[in-house]
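Please annotate this fold before class:
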Amino acid sequence: MKYFVLFFLFITISASAQYKYAVGARFDRTAGLTFKINKGRGPGAEILLNGFGNGLKATALAEWHEKAFSTGQWRWYYGFGGHMGVASNYHKRYYDDNYIQVGADGILGLEHTFTEIPLNISLDWKPEFNFVNNTGLYLPNFGLSLRYAITK
């Protein structure tokens, strides 16, 4: 009986184990990099780096995670943050007129972390509002992320 209880505890702990860090690629309108930090309790953080137009944009997000589907492997996450990008316009066969883009972001997604392999996969919706240059609300921003999960 004692071995059955220990085996059950081992299965429960390993099935609910989550990553501490995850690094990988995010695919939306353009491919980019993603780095997540999971603190366990409280908000985690995600840093995104991707191209837009002929420039580069960095996004920082605070994220909260909740269990989904009564298992520790599936989790909902939601959060908010901001972004800043730098690009230049294309005029008459060359780039000029550098500009900066600044805005606010939200995120809502579902992720799965495999216990058999160190893989985290997520699908999310990340609306953004630009305050500086290209002002406006951009709603159709869906992404798929594949990350290498680091548990230690």
User: Anything to note?
Assistant: The longest strand covers residues 71-91. Residues 1-17 have pLDDT under 50 and may be disordered. The chain has one helix and ten strands.
